[in-house]
């Protein structure tokens, strides 16, 4: 995943409302959102490394990971996607998992990870050093920088999620519309992550359209206060071509 906004413990019905886009090379093989046969996970699957970018468990857990956009960082270590599956299939609660992972985080490729269970939520990262942070109730955002870094697309998605909450809406169409926004940021708002101004501009919208790289999936997660919920995934091919949708409840 490369863009996430979520509301934690502020909606009267939903403990967690999460909207996110996964940006990836189109050639990287992946399976659509589904229930996995080998572990208690509902997610799409990265067929190259075996993990996932975003998933839920039937017990009401959720996990989502992004990479860190910094060309100076070596992309070595254990796959980031395994962080999500290890969390979803594990037994430890969110605080215990966060403490244990923080001790082991340097073994993984550069990552940002969000974990949610029935009682708590945590952000964990490993660059420039391992760190963890408990998530407070409210609307938060994450892209390919530190938690709540105010990149333009992160701020905009958070604002549109907040507007959806304020309206008391049940229709999720406005959230998918927010994830589909292709408006680039103004040049003076662009971050400098070391990839050059032209690429920063191309990567700045919520939805990235490209022939070789771009938004592969837009996903919504809604988890209620009993642990039940719904996950919807819309998939895209090269140049943003629609490539199917999955909608699952548990």
From TrEMBL:
InterPro entries: TANGO2. This is NRDE family protein. The lineage of its organism: Bacteria, Pseudomonadati, Pseudomonadota, Gammaproteobacteria, Lysobacterales.
